[in-house]
Automatic annotation (TrEMBL):
Gene Ontology molecular functions: succinate-semialdehyde dehydrogenase (NAD+) activity
Record's catalysed reaction(s): succinate semialdehyde + NAD(+) + H2O = succinate + NADH + 2 H(+)
Protein name: Succinate-semialdehyde dehydrogenase, mitochondrial
Organism ancestry: Eukaryota, Viridiplantae, Streptophyta, Embryophyta, Tracheophyta
Keywords, comma-separated and alphabetical: Oxidoreductase
Catalytic residues (UniProt): 162
Domain Aldehyde dehydrogenase: residue ranges: 1-385
PANTHER family from the UniProt entry: SUCCINATE-SEMIALDEHYDE DEHYDROGENASE, MITOCHONDRIAL (PTHR43353:SF5)
InterPro entries: Ald_DH/histidinol_DH (IPR016161), Ald_DH_C (IPR016163), Ald_DH_CS_CYS (IPR016160), Ald_DH_CS_GLU (IPR029510), Ald_DH_N (IPR016162), Aldehyde_DH_dom (IPR015590), Aldehyde_DH_Superfamily (IPR050740)
UniProt keyword Ligase, yes or no: no
Record pathway: Amino-acid degradation; 4-aminobutanoate degradation
Superkingdom of the source species: Eukaryota
Family: Belongs to the aldehyde dehydrogenase family.
Length: 391
């Protein structure tokens, strides 16, 4: 993964464990796919609910977590008795093939897990048009997710979508500053900022803005950009030239509208697709950095006055995947968590994904949930059986 996608070795090893955790979790969960017996309304009847595999699953996955985004789909699909055709990202085919090879070594029967590579729209269309494929599960951009959702209509497939985010990270005046800096740094710069749950907008209450900005910049300065195979590296390159150009476009847009670069703000001297860890101040809601997912190592700081204003700004987006808040107040933690229109909320914590909890978004960040006991339902059909005339 480090060689293919660029993430530092420590993060790649973390992803190996994270990826494996979905296989382990769903191997266990397979034992708990219980049906139901429903008390009948007529005494000569017995009513049952069976849970059965949905059928062949088409899984289309992104490059940013080239292993875990596959196992988070394949684990529950196999646990339910489905077979899977995986279409990995064209940028990370080798990780997918390595995973498939490990699956064969582990004894998963040939044909249960398949990996297909090539032209993405062509493979996508073949999966969409097939009546044998009963479910499409997709992780990737919102634009492609919408196409797949529309394309599934023709054969009325089940669809799960894990799409883009625009995560707010709200730092209140009453936050523990060390916890807030550590949490926001992790939430922002994981995988060079190329994570759907990365903090995309750091909203900072005005009373703590200067203090937080100073401490945050100091922490960002400690990130070491370089070759992920070197142990000291904490940030690798971006995935490709297009990703760097997107970051540049967002930075130019922000500075042309009055934002100020507090740190970084340009390509790294290492060249290629390395970009400097960047902090941008005075970002406002008319800038691309506020409105869209930058998917790079850029932390926009946005000042706010009141809790109400912060919640309004946080929800002012079509995305609704992850959000983070930093505060020492328990009542505020509850109030704000409940008001945020997001599928996941981290309170005083910047890394919250785990195989045991449901992962997924609201609004245009997706449909359905992955991981946890809720993730298994996505690969099951319910069958109601009514046994009558029992005397
Ligand atoms: N919500 C989540 O869980 C989650 C996780 C990871 C990434 N993402 C999102 O994914 C995006 C980055 O990943 P990406 O650049 O690989 O996304 P992408 O949508 O460009 O590609 C994702 C996958 O879709 C395939 N694809 C592209 N066009 C297709 C088509 N017409 N038909 C069928 N398949 C097609 C690609 O080849 C790739 O395998 C970001 O927006 C990020 O937020 C979301
Ligand atoms: O980028 C998306 C997945 C990252 C995660 O599972 O935390």
């Amino acid at each position: 993964m480090t060689l293919e996608q660029g993430k530092p070795m420590k993060e790649a090893l973390g992803e190996v464990n994270y990826g494996a955790s979905f296989i382990e979790y769903f191997a266990e969960e397979a034992k708990r796919i219980y049906g139901d017996i429903i008390p009948p309304t007529l005494s000569d009847r017995r009513l049952l609910v069976l849970k059965q595999p949905v059928g062949v699953v088409g899984a289309i996955t992104p490059w940013n977590f080239p292993l875990a985004m596959i196992t988070r789909k394949v684990g529950p699909a196999l646990a339910c008795g489905c077979t899977v055709v995986v279409k990995p990202s064209e940028f990370t085919p080798l990780t997918a093939l390595a995973a498939a090879d490990l699956a064969l070594q582990a004894g998963i029967p040939a044909g249960a897990l398949n990996v297909v590579m090539g032209n993405a729209p062509e493979i996508g269309d073949a999966l969409l048009q097939s009546t044998q494929v009963r479910k499409i599960t997709f992780t990737g951009s919102t634009a492609v997710g919408k196409k797949l959702m529309a394309g599934s209509a023709n054969t009325v497939k089940k669809v799960s979508l894990e799409l883009g985010g625009n995560a707010p990270c709200i730092v209140f005046d009453d936050a523990d500053i060390d916890v807030a800096v550590k949490g926001s740094l992790a939430a922002k710069f994981r995988n060079s900022g190329q994570t759907c749950v990365c903090a995309n907008r750091i909203l900072v209450q005005e009373g703590i803005y200067e203090k937080f900005a100073t401490a945050f910049i100091k922490a960002v300065q400690s990130l070491k950009v370089g070759n992920g195979l070197e142990e000291s590296t904490s940030q690798g390159p971006l995935i490709n030239e297009a990703a760097v150009q997107k970051v540049e476009k967002f930075i130019n847009d922000a500075t042309s509208k009055g934002a100020n670069i507090m740190l970084g703000g340009k390509r790294h001297s290492l060249g290629m697709t390395f970009y400097e860890p960047t902090v941008v101040g005075n970002v406002s809601n008319d800038m691309l950095l506020f409105r869209e997912e930058v998917f790079g190592p850029v932390a926009p700081l946005i000042p706010f006055k009141t809790e109400e204003e912060a919640v309004h700004m946080a929800n002012d987006t079509n995305a609704g995947l992850a959000a983070y808040i930093f505060t020492k107040s328990i009542p505020r933690s509850w109030r704000v968590s409940e008001s945020l229109e997001y599928g996941l909320v981290g309170v005083n914590e910047g890394i919250i994904s785990t195989e045991v909890a449901p992962f997924g978004g609201v609004k245009q960040s997706g449909l359905g949930r992955e991981g946890s006991k809720y993730g298994i339902d996505e690969y099951l059909e319910l069958k109601y059986i009514c046994m009558g005339n029992l005397g």
